[in-house]
Design goal:
Blueprint (H helix, E strand, L loop, with lengths): L4 E6 L3 E4 L7 E8 L11 E4 L13 E3 L7 E4 L5 E3 L5 E7 L4 H12 L4 E8 L4 E6 L2 E6 L2 E10 L9 H29 L1
Parallel strand pairs: 4-11, 5-12
Antiparallel strand pairs: 1-9, 2-3, 3-8, 5-6, 7-8, 9-12, 10-11
């Protein structure tokens, strides 16, 4: 089963642009490298440079609020452009001449919608966990697939997200490893 995670980020550059003879464009950064996230439900997260490289060849869609009914652009038809640069994952979306496209452009332009987001699944072994002082941190090193990017209204990290389940899995693995160490120590004491 593929686990899809969403990261909704506030405060990244999100801009709109009217272009002569071309559709209006919304552009910004869906993710920044080496930047620590807000608390995602017991841990923070950092994305390593290069983490999206293998996932950029897929057919990513541009959505408003991760809503499949509000499609704004698509990588396969050239209306969504994605790349990695030294800062992160910038995107450009050509807005469609639809109610959703016109509304999204107007809301971004007014500053009513100013968050960005991306949905992804991890490559097996594509993340590592460690502690930085008391803070638990997950570093994403390899995204398996990038599903969608785009503007969002409410940048938030709900406690019931898939990310929280990922934390629980890691904590269970850590507890199992600690139990194995304790068993080995007891056996060594007996031997």
């Amino acid at each position: 089963m593929t686990v899809v995670e969403r990261r909704i980020i506030e405060g990244l550059e999100l801009r709109c642009e009217l272009r002569e003879g071309k559709p209006p464009m919304v552009a910004g950064y869906a993710a920044l490298f080496n930047s620590l996230s807000v608390d995602l439900g017991g841990f923070k997260e950092r994305i390593a440079p290069g983490a999206f490289r293998a996932a950029l060849g897929g057919d990513v869609v541009g959505l408003l609020n991760h809503d499949a009914n509000l499609v704004l652009s698509r990588q396969s038809n050239g209306t969504l452009r994605l790349q990695e640069d030294e800062r992160g994952l910038p995107f450009e979306m050509d807005m469609p001449d639809t109610q959703a496209g016109r509304d999204t452009f107007a809301l971004v332009k007014r500053g009513d919608v100013k968050g960005t987001s991306f949905a992804f699944s991890l490559e097996k072994g594509g993340a590592s966990w460690h502690r930085e002082g008391e803070q638990l941190v997950r570093t994403i090193t390899k995204v398996a697939s990038l599903r969608d990017v785009g503007p969002v209204t409410f940048p938030a990290y709900p406690e019931t997200s898939v990310a929280t389940r990922s934390l629980k899995e890691w904590l269970a693995e850590e507890e199992a490893a600690a139990a194995r160490r304790r068993r080995r120590e007891r056996l060594a004491d007996l031997g």
